[in-house]
Amino acid sequence: MARKKAGQARGHNPASAGPGKRARPGAPEGAAGAAGPGRGRAGRAPEVAPDLRVQLPYFLIRLAVLVILSVVLIAVGVAPLLGILIGFAVAGLLTWPLGRMQRRAAQRSAAQRSAERRSAERRSAGQARADGSPRNPPAS
Prior knowledge:
The protein is an all-alpha fold. Helix content is 58%, strand content 0%. The protein has 4 helices and no strands. It is elongated and about 75 Å long. The two termini are 51 Å apart. The model is unreliable at 31-36 (pLDDT under 50).
């Protein structure tokens, strides 16, 4: 079997129909058009990063538990590396419910920010139509 040149690997260009395949009529070309404009993977809306300030109190509490446990273990006479490893394990188990609360807070924050962004986009689109200005001005 002959080796293919660079760039000719199978599946290299997802936009091309390839040999023996026909592209659908009206199918978007390129990877950007596959999911639609302004969309993330698989047609979903793009993810919104959660506000880290919402997670900060949870993180600080969990970090404090880890530090306190590690310091106590090291003070008792456990080797420092072993004390930190045991501290990670025990702190993870003790603060598991707090971690779940942290995740829920982050999800609520992201959902709220996404909803606020959508409503702002709707308001700006509605105001643009009320002003009579075109929705997408032509590029110069």
